[in-house]
Every structure is written in C-alpha cells, then in structure tokens.
C-alpha cells in the first residue's frame, strides 16, 4: 500500500473554499423547540449555533458547487481544468448521486464526477481516494468536496440528536506535481468497524422512505476518543513525524470535548486544535474542509504548514491524513 510520499507523481493542496446556508439556528431557538438549554448544549458539545438549509437554494448540489467554485478560483484554475470531482456526502439530493449536478452547475465539462459515502469520515476518505488517482498519473486536478445537509434527516423533536447537526460544504483542489515531484500528502490511515454499524444510522424504512438519524451518543463518544488518537499517531508515523511537528490539528467538528480529549492525550497546545463547531455544529463530511478553509482564509494556515486531519463517524469509519499545505 502506498500511503507515504514515494511515487513519481505527488499531490499538492492548492485551493480551498466553503459555503453554508444563510439561516442560523441558535441554541436559544432550539430551546423553544425541545426541552433543552443553551447552557446544556454549549457545555456538553461546544456548539452554540448552526446554519440550516432553507429549501432548494441550499441543496447539497448548490452548497457543494458554491464551495467548489471558490476552491477552483483559489487554486487559480477554471472549471474546465478539473479532471475529477469527488463529492463526499451522506445526504445526497438524489440517491443516484449528486456529483453530476455539481459538475453541471460548475460547468466542469471535462470532469468525471461521482459521490463517495463515508459519513463524517467522508472528507478524509475522499482525500485519500483523490490522491490515488493523482499518484497513478491518471488525473491532474481533482476537486474534492465534502457537503452535507443533515438537517433534512434530523428528528427535530429528539433533543439528543437535533442539537448536534448543521449544514454546509467545504472543498479542496488537489493537484498533481511531477516537475519536480513534490508530494505533500505525507501519510494517512483509514479504518472501518462494521460491528459498530448500528450506533449511528439513517436507516431505510421501506416504501421509499428513511428513518431520521438514530445515534447512541455515549458509545459514539467513547469510540471517537479511543480511536481518533490511534489513527492520527499511525498517519504521523507513516509521515515520519511526531505530534510536535503538527502546526494545525483539524478534527471532525463533532464535539469540543472530543477535541479537548485528543489535545490532552497528545499534550499539544490547544491553540493548534482548530475549532469552529460553536458556529456550525456538526456538518458531517463538510466539517473538516469548512474549518480548513476558514483557517486558510484567516491566514493562519500558511504554505508549508503541517496539517493533521481526522474524521470519524457512522460505519463505523474513521481515518486521518497528514499533509503539507500548498
Ligand atoms: N438537553 C438537555 N438534556 C439532554 C439533552 C439536551 N439536548 N440531550 C440529552 N439530555 C439528557 C438525557 O435525556 C439524559 O437525561 P437523564 O440522565 O435524565 O436520562 C442526560 O441529558 C444525559 O444524557 P447523555 O446521553 O448521557 O448525555 P451525554 O453527556 O452523553 O451527552 C451527547 C450527549 C450527544 C452530547 C454526547 O454523547 C456526544 O456528543 N456524543 C458523541 C456524538 C457525536 O459526536 N456524534 C456524531 C459523530 S460523527
């Protein structure tokens, strides 16, 4: 398995973008809908508000295309330069896939486009998938988008889950580098454990319908705190790096307490652990690229910074990647 920089074509990370719906739902708004408080939600999760899709304008396709457009522009490319679009989503507008709609909106006519479903690990799994197409020399410019509209699948009367999720999209352009070869994807590791599949689901319920999100919060929490540090350590080992080399740690934005636990476990400076879930909640496959884009836009993530990302969620699935920005 090639998961370190060792091939003839390397991967560079050349542009990011993100988009969220305008409509904001605060914890105080939620307290009007279910038996909860801002204090309970903020202290247990770190979430204070989230953006919620409002009709077709905020479809997965539209949010994904907006984020993708910004990433393509940030990379200094045009849509026709894109060879491959990977849309990581678990909340497709169409069960046949939404990537084709994104391709159409973008006008990325040369691209091949497909969806990838790996829940909150979707962006990490998508990054690994995209990089394989680049390292084999098949494609030069890949647009990877993580986009989810979980608000469609939340039971808004279930206070244990409806407080957690928000909607949005984040995108990244990965580019081939062979002259000279620079491979900025330094290491990665992906894992699955189907034995935990029933801990987090949106199940088909027959007659063209799905049930709302069901989750065993405590078990998912335990899984994340145990497995995420392991997988980060593994990808750092492959990269020949240690936690002290990491400039920015971007975990899937599910719960501030999970981030705090990983920070404590590694003994790293909490300021290096990117956190924006206070504003967005858990946006599933979009959470890592939204956070990445926000930190890039703010000038915090700079060229050559080492970024470690880790996603985790339904499947169960989890994974990490370590890369050099730029
Ligand atoms: N407001 C007020 N009380 C709430 C509540 C809410 N929104 N949600 C649950 N409660 C209550 C429960 O009913 C329970 O009451 P009881 O003791 O009277 O039965 C109590 O709070 C504790 O519930 P519990 O489920 O044990 O809370 P918790 O500390 O585990 O926190 C989560 C719940 C969901 C915040 C936490 O488990 C979590 O974040 N898990 C990880 C989830 C996650 O990240 N999922 C996505 C992964 S991609």
Percentage of residues in DSSP E strands: 25-35%
Strands ordered across the widest β-sheet: 1-7-6-4-5
Question: Compute the gyration radius: what is it?
Answer: 18 Å
How many domains make up the 3D coordinates?
Answer: 2
In CATH, the architecture of the largest domain is 3-Layer(aba) Sandwich
- Number of E strands: 15
Alpha-beta classification: alpha+beta
The CATH superfamily of the largest domain is known as: Thiolase/Chalcone synthase
How does the major sheet shape up? 5 strands, mixed
What small molecules does this complex bind?
coenzyme A
Q: Give the H and E element order.
A: EEHHEHEHEHEEEEEEEHEHHHEE
CATH fold topology of the largest domain: Peroxisomal Thiolase, Chain A, domain 1
- Summed up, the helix count is 9
Mean pLDDT: 96
Large-scale geometry: globular
Percentage of residues assigned to helices: 25-40%
Low-confidence segments, given as residue ranges, are none
Q: What distance lies between the first and last C-alpha atoms, to the nearest angstrom? A: 24 Å
Give the class-level CATH name of the largest domain: Alpha Beta
Describe this structure in words.
The mean pLDDT is 96. The strands form 5 sheets. A 5-stranded mixed β-sheet has the order 1-7-6-4-5, with helices on both faces. Strands 8-15-14-13 form a 4-stranded mixed β-sheet, with helices on both faces. Strands 2-3 form a two-stranded antiparallel sheet. Helix 3 crosses helix 4 and helix 6 (217-238) crosses helix 7 (256-266). The protein has helices at residues 27-31, 38-45, 60-74, 99-106, 122-135, 217-238, 256-266, 277-280, 287-297, and strands spanning 10-19, 24-26, 49-51, 84-88, 112-116, 141-149, 167-177, 185-192, 200-201, 204-206, 209-210, 214-215, 248-251, 306-313, 317-324. Strand 10 and strand 11 form a beta hairpin. It folds into 2 domains: 11-176, Peroxisomal Thiolase, Chain A, domain 1, CATH 3.40.47; 185-324, Thiolase/Chalcone synthase (Peroxisomal Thiolase, Chain A, domain 1), CATH 3.40.47.10. It is built from 9 helices and 15 strands. The protein starts with 9 loop residues before the first strand and ends with a strand. It is globular. It is α+β, with helices and mostly antiparallel strands. The structure holds coenzyme A (COA). Coenzyme A is lined by residues 36, 40-41, 44-45, 120, 159-160, 163, 215, 217-218, 220-221, 254-255, 282, 313. Coenzyme A binds at residues 36, 40-41, 44-45, 120, 159-160, 163, 215, 217-218, 220-221, 254-255, 282, 313.
């Amino acid at each position: 398995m090639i998961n370190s920089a060792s091939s003839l074509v390397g991967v560079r990370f050349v542009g990011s973008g993100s988009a969220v719906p305008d409509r904001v739902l605060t914890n105080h708004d939620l307290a009007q809908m279910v038996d909860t408080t801002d204090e309970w939600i903020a202290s247990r999760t770190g979430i204070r508000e989230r953006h919620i899709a409002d009709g077709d304008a905020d479809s997965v396709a539209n949010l994904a295309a907006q984020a993708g457009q910004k990433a393509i522009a940030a990379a200094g490319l045009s849509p026709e330069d894109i060879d491959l679009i990977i849309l990581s989503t678990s909340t497709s507008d169409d069960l046949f896939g939404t990537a084709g709609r994104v391709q159409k909106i973008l006008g990325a006519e040369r691209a091949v486009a497909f969806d990838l479903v790996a829940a909150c690990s979707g962006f990490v799994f998508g990054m690994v998938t995209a990089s394989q197409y680049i390292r084999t020399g098949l494609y030069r410019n890949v647009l990877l988008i993580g986009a989810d509209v979980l608000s469609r699948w939340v039971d808004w009367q279930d206070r244990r889950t409806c407080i957690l999720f928000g909607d949005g999209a984040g995108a990244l352009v990965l580019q081939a580098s062979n002259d000279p070869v620079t491979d900025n994807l330094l290491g990665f590791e992906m894992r699955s454990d189907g034995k935990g599949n029933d801990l987090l689901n949106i199940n088909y319920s027959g007659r063209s319908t799905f049930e709302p999100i069901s989750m065993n919060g405590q078990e998912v929490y335990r899984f994340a705190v145990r497995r995420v540090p392991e997988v980060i350590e593994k990808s750092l080992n492959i990269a020949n790096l240690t936690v002290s080399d990491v400039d920015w740690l971007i975990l899937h934005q599910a719960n501030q307490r999970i981030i705090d636990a990983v920070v404590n476990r590694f003994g790293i400076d909490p300021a290096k652990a990117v956190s924006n879930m206070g504003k967005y909640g858990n946006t599933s496959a979009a959470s890592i690229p939204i956070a990445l884009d926000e930190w890039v836009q703010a000038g915090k993530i700079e060229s050559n910074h080492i970024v470690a990302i880790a996603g985790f969620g339904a499947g169960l699935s989890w994974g990490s990647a370590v890369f050099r920005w730029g």
